[in-house]
Structures are given as C-alpha cells and as structure tokens.
Fold this sequence. Notes:
Elements: E1 2-6, E2 11-18, E3 24-32, H1 42-64, E4 73-79, H2 83-100, E5 104-108, H3 109-121, E6 127-131, E7 136-142, E8 145-151, H4 157-167, H5 175-182, E9 195-196, E10 199-200, H6 203-210, H7 216-242, E11 246-250, H8 257-269, E12 273-275, H9 279-282, H10 286-295
Parallel strand pairs: 1-4, 4-5, 6-11, 11-12
Antiparallel strand pairs: 1-2, 2-3, 6-7, 7-8, 9-10
Helix pairs in contact: 1-2, 3-10, 4-6, 5-7, 7-8
The structure holds adenosine monophosphate and magnesium ion.
Amino acid sequence: MCLGIESTAHTVGVGIASGLEGTKILANVSSSYSPPSGGIHPREAAEHHVKAIHELIESSLDIAGVDFTDLDLISFAKGPGLGPCLRVGATAARALSLALKRPIVGVNHCIAHLEIGKMITGCRDPVMLYVSGGNTQVISYQWGRYRIMGETLDIGIGNLLDKFGRRFSIPFPAGPKIEELAKGGERMLDLPYSVKGMDVSFSGIFTSLSSMQGELKDLCFSLQETAFAMLVEVTERAMAHLEKDEVLLGGGVASNLRLREMCSVMARDRGGELHVPKRQYCVDNGAMIALLGLLLEDQSSLDLDNTKIDQNYRTDDVEVTWL
Ligand code: AMP
Ligand code: MG
C-alpha cells in the first residue's frame, strides 16, 4: 500500500493506492491554492501546501480506512514543477518515511498523469496529450521510455488561457470561463498558428490577442480553435508515426469539451478512440503519485539520498521498467 504526495504547482494532494489483487485507489484528496490576483506565486502556493498537507494525510487515511502502520511505501512528485511547492511534498514524504521506517520513492509527475489515465480508462498503449497549466506534452511509449513526441517551446496551454484571462479580467483559472464565452463566438480572428516540427509555441498567440480589438467571445473562440488545432495536429502526427490508435487526455485543460471533441473527431477519423479519465484523475492529484510509487517500488529505498527534487525532471529521463 502506497501513500503518494503531489505538490508540483497550485494543488497539494494525497492519495493511497493498494497493489494487492489488482491496483485500487483507496483515497484521493487535495486542496488547491488560488491567488487573490495575478498568477501563482510559488512561495505563497508552498505556504498554502504547508498548511493543508497535514490534514490531507489524515483524511486520506480515514477515507482509505487504514492506519499509518498499514502503509508499505511513500511516494512523492519529484518534478517537474515549482521548487518551493515540490519541497513541501518531498519534506512531508521524507518525514513519513523516517517516522514509519518505510521506503520512499520520488516519481515523475507527467508519467504519473499517463499511468493513472491508463488505469482509469483501460487504454493500453496511448499517445497522451497532457495539457495543464505549466506542462504541454505529447507523450508515448517507445523503446523502454515514455518519449516526448512534441511539447510547448514556451508556455503551457493552461498558462496561455490564464494569461489571456488576466489580460481580459477573467479570474483564475480562466479556462472554464473562456470555454463558456467561446461557445458564443462566431468570428475566427487571425492568430499565429505556430507548429514547429512536432513542437508548438503559444506566446505569439498571447501577444497577438493582447492588443486585439473585438468582442471577447470572438477572442475566446479564436484562441481555442487555433491553440487546440495546433495540439491536435501534433498529436495526430505522433499517432501516425508510432502507428497507435488510442489518444489519452490528461491535465486540467482536458476538462475542455471543445478540445475533447476535436481530439475525438481526429481519433475516430483514424479508426482510433479518445480516452478521458474522470476530472479528479485528470487534474493534479495524489492518487496518480501513489500509483506510480507502486509501479516503481523496486527503486524505493530507506535512504533519503535519492529524494532530491528536480524542477526540470524530464519525462524521457525515466527508464520504464514496469511495462
Ligand atoms: P492543471 O495545471 O493540470 O491543474 O490544470 C489547470 C489549468 O487547467 C488552468 O490553466 C485552467 O485554466 C485550465 N482549465 C481548467 N478547466 C478548463 C476548461 N474547462 N477549459 C480549458 N482549460 C481549463
Ligand atoms: Mg499536472
């Protein structure tokens, strides 16, 4: 039984996963920091996590109906993410490991999204479009690693939505409101469509939109249509190259119904299928960290030497030994 701690950005979460008789998620609780104004301040988010984590650990145990002593393993998100936030999760995980004398393992946040998506939806060998605030990657398994087939060269798609929201007075997180407004949009405005090889770039879209005149609903509509089309193009090219027919969505932006629709049409046209986990497993969560902890159990240790955080931890740095 593994307790996993997520704290890469604005959400701190604790999950418990059991590996006996098939993997099961026994608890998944979280608390999110949302800034009163402006973007996420890493130190303020970390302070929020410090205040929340104790209660989250207790309530995860209550919900799972287990005791501290039932835990066999502790995992935490080692990266990628914001340094001050990552340190809160790592510190709590080290404290639990020391106090309970249980091994600890640090795991990759992006791979955790992918593995929980597979477990929840039942897809087997997907191309994952991972779309969150800070991260935007197209990930798939090939030759012993999860390869980054394409990614953003600058800001994450969620970050684009939230920056746009700040510019036009839409409160954080702006994604849901932009989705709502876009439904009324009619005019497709000309925005930079930046696909560079397999990578995408969003900052030009933001710059263009910032100085554009026009109705907000049209700006939202054009933003979504352009940015999502770029993502779907790269995802489709990865599927064609790898000859895979499952698409898996993950990250907070996966909640967007227009993005789902576009991915679903693309997948169906190729004879494939779209998979989207329930929202609680799409967004940052502790359950995915606990699940990946179980998969990486053979790399866990009682020694804390290997528990440093890595803000730039790459998806393809991890050798996939569990498939
Ligand atoms: P994450 O970083 O994975 O926790 O996801 C947070 C991001 O998801 C924020 O940038 C939100 O604006 C974005 N988001 C949440 N709901 C939606 C939605 N319905 N449409 C688009 N983006 C969304
Ligand atoms: Mg995430």
